[in-house]
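Much of what follows relies on a compact textual record of a protein's fold. Think of the row as the fold of the chain written in a discrete alphabet. An example makes this concrete, so a full record is given next.


***
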Amino acid sequence: MAEVRHALSLNAFEREAKAGLDAETKALLERRERNFGAASVLFYRAPLNIVAAEGAWMVAADGRRYLDAYNNVPSIGHSHRRVAEAIAKQSATVNTSTRYLNEIIETYAERLKATLPKSLSNVALTCSGSEANDLAMRIASAASGAEGFIVTETAYHGNTTAVTEISPSALKPGRLRRHVRLVPAPGRAAYGDDIAGGFGKAVEQAIAALARDGLKPAALICDSIFSSDGVFADPKGFMAPAVKAMRAAGGLFIADEVQPGFGRTGDHMWGFGRHGLTPDIVTMGKPMGNGFPIAGLATTPKRLAAYCTEVGYFNTFGGNPVAAAAGLAVLDVLRDEGLQENARVIGAELRERIAALRQRCPGISEVRGAGLFIGVEFSHDGDLARPDAETATRVINGMRDRGVLIGAAGRFGNILKIRPPLCFKSEHIATLIEALEQSLDA
């Protein structure tokens, strides 16, 4: 049976590779290990020392350029001039605690709400997606009067205590808490061709399992493209039966848009749009400030009030004026540069080019995704029941050696996660495909 992989072990630095590093990188790595100890987590067998980045390109200390097809924090492109200028201007004007009125914060909240369903008319701003999901869990418990949560079996939702408990990919096997139930990722390996029905039935069974322990469900929380599970986007609408089952049991649906949000999936601003759903709570983070820390959630006034009446909410830095300036600049760039449409068009081209490689590489069992969020699954002889993590790891590091950066996902680490900045172009695709072909053939 294939080994279940911890999230932080995917595409990770391997200490045995340290001997082969150049002197400068080795010295910097040793400083890192002294400073951060066991909390030092790096990508790739041979880690990269990145010193600059612009658009879709990153530059290492040795001057080598790498095409970034992974990082969705600088989602509109690295070092975007308009975001940098907005941050600098606001920082040089005023930046305060969020308990003062400031017009730019209100303007940002209004612009953000305009992208969401009208019922989600209250926002709460935080500094990270982990904080946003933590707050969403508390709101869901207050609104439902329940404490149970249902997530997918390789979900990752953040690293506060509460959110880590619903992030099985970050936990060692056997550490699941009593109030959490897992369902398999919404793919053919678990549900065959009836993904909507199978996933909905799995959520019903998880609700029943909570009930057997005397618990009621507070929420189903899903990353709406299931990125940590291995990127599952289709068929459109498949989440509807699962959400219906959760609401029938008195729980809420939390759409975690930290990874798929802000136009990445192409057809919609938010990943949940593919399913024709209005979530009860939407959380967001990583790409929101293109590298500046800003995150948050949106929900209905009634649900937010149910929580704030009992506890209240305040965040010193969440949604401060500089963060709001960064967020506004991101929304402006998404609109002015047509990046959501670019994600749709270029993403379709990229998926088509990768899918064409299946003819020469039968180990590619599926190519999935939406917009510029793509998963490429490797299995032995194309059999989904026999995941091939070794090939996925070899390809990831091979592409890194050829100047293209991607990542890994999935319960067994056998899925390539390709997630370029939304400014990706056809010429970037050509570079990526060449590196992928060479890595497959090596």
